[in-house]
């Protein structure tokens, strides 16, 4: 099992409960493909480096999980089409 960190940038214009649902969907994707979520780090609302879809601010979440090497690709395929996710990045955690 490898350790991964998934950064998710979520639309700031949606309600708190909708934002929580987006993160729950991402966590459900990890577990659906056999991964184990170890930590969810919420950084809160931050200013974006550049405008994305006419937005200047968004919420940042970092989801740490353990899984096989094929799982990040599967998760990225599903996150790519999710509403309210502006950007995402999954990297292998070497720590």
Please tell me about this protein's structure.
Helix content is 27%, strand content 51%. It has helices spanning 16-32, 71-79; strands spanning 2-11, 36-52, 55-67, 85-92. The protein has a four-stranded antiparallel sheet, with helices on one face. A hairpin with a 2-residue loop joins β2 (36-52) and β3 (55-67). The model has no long low-confidence stretch (mean pLDDT 93).
Structure described in brief:
By secondary structure, this protein is an alpha+beta fold.
How would you describe this structure in keywords?
4 strands, four-stranded antiparallel sheet, 95 residues, single chain, 51% strand, globular, alpha+beta
Strand order of the largest sheet: 2-3-1-4
Share of helical residues: 25-40%
The outline comes out as globular
Task: Indicate the mean pLDDT.
Answer: 93
Order of helices and strands: EHEEHE
What is the topology?
Blueprint: E1 2-11, H1 16-32, E2 36-52, E3 55-67, H2 71-79, E4 85-92
Antiparallel strand pairs: 1-3, 1-4, 2-3
């Amino acid at each position: 099992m490898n350790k991964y960190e998934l950064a998710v940038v979520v639309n700031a214009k949606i309600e708190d409960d909708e934002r929580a649902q987006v993160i729950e969907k991402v966590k459900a994707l990890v577990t659906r493909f056999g991964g184990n979520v170890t930590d969810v780090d919420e950084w809160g609302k931050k200013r974006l480096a550049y405008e994305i879809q006419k937005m200047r601010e968004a919420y940042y979440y970092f989801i740490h999980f353990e899984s096989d090497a094929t799982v990040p690709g599967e998760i990225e395929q599903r996150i790519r089409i999710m509403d309210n996710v502006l950007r995402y990045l999954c990297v292998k955690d070497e720590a």
